[in-house]
Design goal:
Chain B: One of its GO terms (molecular function) is tRNA-specific adenosine-34 deaminase activity. Chain B: InterPro entries: CMP_dCMP_dom, Cytidine_deaminase-like. Chain B: It is an enzyme of class 3 (hydrolase). The complex is a heterodimer of chains A (about 475) and B (about 280). Chain A has about 475 residues and is α+β, with helices and mostly antiparallel strands. Chain A folds into three domains: about 120 residues, no CATH class; about 70 residues; about 230 residues, Cytidine Deaminase, domain 2, CATH 3.40.140.10. Chain A contains 18 helices and twelve strands. In chain A, α11 packs parallel to α18. The longest helix of chain A is centred in the middle third of the chain and has 31 residues. Chain A is elongated and about 105 Å long. In chain B, α2 packs parallel to α9. Chain B has about 280 residues and is α/β, with parallel strands linked by helices. In chain B, β3, α8 and β4 form a beta-alpha-beta unit. Classes of the chains: A alpha+beta (about 475), B alpha/beta (about 280).
Chain lengths: ~475, ~280
């Protein structure tokens, strides 16, 4: 059977997502940090607060750009929690037993408990500073409350110790260095803070340890770290695992994209037919040498898989004189008389034409219009050729969901084509604009072949597209 | 184009301010119909370049004396300069339901195709009139019949030869004309428009205020520079910013102080920041 031979095993090869170059921040696996082990619960809270004042774990959000130079010089510690509670080692149990009998007799267990929870509150407020996902904040707060109750009940059964994170080694060293050069009365030095709590760099419990340099990739890793390394903040929606699962294309989506590319090719073919029609219609002697590069463009509603608008359709509507109902002759050829009437723009105008029709037939106050389509929101655009910057930005303004194209344009392309121009290439993910879309290109390289349907394979699709856009000869080995 | 620039890069402050004030006039009319108030005019620098037969035309102002509304600079422009406004445009995003119908696109479309992708695509006035979901402020005049869509270079003399060039005169231009034209736009062209201006090959581009959100001429990208793209097909264009900047900003502010009543309910923002500028 034909359909069997066109199995979807090679679906994943069909399209390549164009990601913005700075999308993935490279973080180290581990970073060296100073921690103070087995700290007295009564000073944990105040110490954490004082440390946060001079060695904050979270980089300030508001001034992210202006501070880029200063924050970049230290490893990121946004994901680390300030304090860790762990089961006490045997030595520590002995030590604390001695201590408590000798000097901390007067501290009742209940008041020490209060102090601990106080420290935890401070930690919580620091988490809030980081300004991360709300639900996470809340669940953190929840955990703390639960833990507090657990603490009370388990107080006597399992002895535990508190460790406090001072900061990354680089950050601490920098702090020590600047403290000696500029003694500022308003912000105390690290040494002064340590001294305030009877600690110093020389204390035996002031140690150096490798802590996770990045947020956990998944829950298992987070639990593992919490248990045996160091507690971290965990944002499921920010993990690479979640992101990859979230953005992965389903095979149904890829099937739709394959069909969309084929339809875009058909649209470009139709465009050339229209161009020939127009040339034959005007004086044949003059226009033999007229040439025009026409690409194909269409807008698809991914919810239904239906084609909303085709460039060729809109070109016909704009090019054929309105009252020539009997002859249907071209009054002018939009792409030729206006260099800005390119295929992607015509396809966008086709969508707006439909919206206007809804507005006229139902009235703009109607629920059907008001709850209906707004610009190209949620729609996917298929192009035979990479859009240039003009077209790519018009798609941003139109708020399309995805753009899928065939042949890259290394000279003028707006979605990664011009490699030499660096950041100016990715209009779809330009920082600062009010809308981003995902961009995909057809994989042009030879590889395992899959069928679209009928006898159209990827190889034949690519060959046809190259035929359409010959001036952009691209060495597919470099893509 | 490069030749055009070296050949005629002479600045004339009086003319620049005059043309920008005309662009602002177009922008104000857009505000009246609930569009983002960005306007532009396209100025053909020398009508003789365009049509040599025009050299025989009288360069003298033969109409009535200019009234008080015209200062000496404008009068000078009216009587002697070879500069002519050949097109103008304001945003038509809401009227066409097409987010790409920015002022520059509309002005270019009017010159080349008689507004086939903009004016001829606008919703009928009676439909637009009811468009605001019953929330039109009293001071809006959506349904007003305006003749602002026409353009008259010399309003005080309807038969002046200069009035023979603008939108409404039925004159159609070839796409090569832009190399002889300057664009005056109240707000820095967005990335899309900046790329478009380079594609059609404008000689010079003058703008009022910056466009922090979408600007393609220095704010986000530098598409006016020829080296912005590797292709030899990208020419860029010389830019001159900050002309009547304060007027352009206050006009935009007056729009963003109110909500965009054309957007559907679920898309409408209650409070828009003042610097949220789109051209």
């Amino acid at each position: 059977m034909v359909t069997m031979s066109c199995s979807n095993s090679s679906n994943a090869d069909w399209f390549i997502e164009i990601e913005s170059p700075d999308a993935e921040e490279v973080l180290p696996e581990w970073i060296e940090c100073y921690i103070i082990e087995n700290i007295d619960p009564t000073i944990c809270g105040p110490l954490s607060k004082d440390l946060s004042a001079i060695l904050p774990l979270r980089s300030p959000l508001s001034s992210a750009e202006t501070n880029a130079s200063t924050t970049n010089q230290f490893p990121k510690t946004d994901h680390l929690k300030r304090a860790r509670r762990r089961a006490a080692t045997e030595n520590e149990v002995k030590l604390s037993a001695n201590n408590s009998s000798a000097q901390t007799q007067k501290l009742s267990s209940s008041s020490s408990d209060d102090k601990t929870s106080c420290g935890n509150k401070k930690l919580k407020s620091e988490d809030v500073e980081s300004g991360d996902i709300n639900t996470e904040k809340q669940s953190n707060g929840h955990n703390i409350k639960k833990r507090k109750q657990k603490d009370r009940s388990n107080q006597n059964s399992t002895p535990w110790s508190l460790d406090v994170l001072v900061g990354s080694v680089q950050q601490c060293n920098d702090s020590l260095k600047t403290a000696t050069t500029t003694r500022n009365a308003t912000s105390p030095s690290l040494l002064a803070i340590l001294a305030k709590y009877g600690l110093s760099e020389e204390s035996p419990n002031f140690t150096r340890q490798s802590l996770p340099g990045r947020p956990a990739k998944n829950k298992e890793e987070r639990d593992e770290w919490n248990k045996s390394v160091w507690p971290t903040l965990f944002f499921e929606k920010k993990t690479t695992q979640f992101k990859q699962e979230e953005i992965a294309l389903t095979s149904a989506e890829i099937e739709l994209m394959k069909n969309g590319m084929q339809e875009a090719l058909a649209d470009a073919m139709m465009g050339y037919t229209q161009w020939r029609e127009w040339k034959e219609q005007i004086e044949p002697s003059r226009d033999k040498e007229l040439s025009l590069l026409i690409s194909g463009a269409l807008v698809i509603d991914p919810q239904t898989g239906s084609i909303v608008s085709r460039a060729s359709q809109e070109r016909k509507l704009q090019g054929i004189a309105g009252d020539a109902s009997n002859h249907q002759t071209w009054a002018s050829f939009p792409d030729y008389i206006n260099p800005l009437s390119t295929a992607p723009l015509l396809a966008i105008q086709g969508v707006s034409r439909i919206e206007r029709q809804v507005a006229i037939s139902n009235g703009m106050e109607s629920d059907k219009f008001r709850g209906g389509q707004y610009l190209c929101t949620g729609y996917d655009v298929y192009l035979t050729k990479e859009p240039n910057i003009f077209e790519a930005m018009s798609l941003v303004h139109s708020r399309v969901r995805r753009v899928i194209f065939g042949i890259p344009d290394e000279g003028m392309g707006g979605l990664g084509g011009p490699k030499s121009s660096g950041q100016e290439a990715g209009i779809h993910s330009l920082p600062g604009t009010n809308h981003h879309y995902r961009a995909f290109r057809l994989n042009l390289s030879d590889g395992s072949d899959g069928c679209i349907g009928g006898d159209m394979t990827r190889k034949s699709l690519v060959a046809e597209l190259r035929n359409l856009h010959p001036e952009k000869e691209v060495d597919c080995r470099n893509i | 184009m490069v030749e055009g620039v070296s050949h005629d890069a002479v600045r004339n402050e009086v003319l620049e301010k005059y043309f920008m004030s005309q662009a602002l006039r177009v922008a104000k009319e857009a505000l009246d119909v609930g569009e983002v108030p960005v306007g532009c005019v396209i100025v053909l620098r020398d009508v003789n370049d365009f049509d040599p037969s025009l050299t025989t035309m009288s360069r003298q102002y033969d109409g009535p004396e200019p009234d008080d509304a015209f200062d000496t600079g404008e009068h000078q422009y009216l009587t002697s300069s070879p500069y002519v406004i050949v097109s103008h445009g304001a945003n038509q995003v809401n009227a066409t339901r097409d987010a790409t119908r920015h002022a520059e696109m509309v002005a270019i479309d009017r010159m080349l195709t008689k507004g086939r992708s903009s004016d001829q695509m606008k919703l009928p006035a009676d439909v637009i009139q009811k468009s605001a979901h019953g929330k039109i402020p009293n001071d809006y005049t959506l349904g007003r019949v305006k003749d602002g869509d026409k353009w008259i270079n010399v309003p005080s003399c309807a038969t002046h030869w200069k009035n023979n060039f603008g939108w409404g005169s039925d004159r159609i231009y070839d796409k090569d004309v832009f190399s002889k034209c300057d664009l005056y736009v109240t707000c820095e062209p967005c990335i899309m428009c900046a790329a478009a201006l380079s594609m059609v090959g404008f000689s010079r581009v003058f703008f009022g205020c910056k466009n922090d959100r979408f600007g393609g001429c220095g704010s986000l990208l530098h598409l006016h520079k020829p080296e912005a793209l590797p292709s030899a097909k990208h020419h860029g264009f010389p830019i001159y910013g900050g002309i009547l900047e304060d007027e352009a900003i206050s006009l935009l502010r007056s729009f963003y102080d109110r909500e965009n009543f054309h957007a559907p309910d679920h898309k409408r923002k209650r409070k828009l920041p003042v610097d949220n500028v789109s051209s």
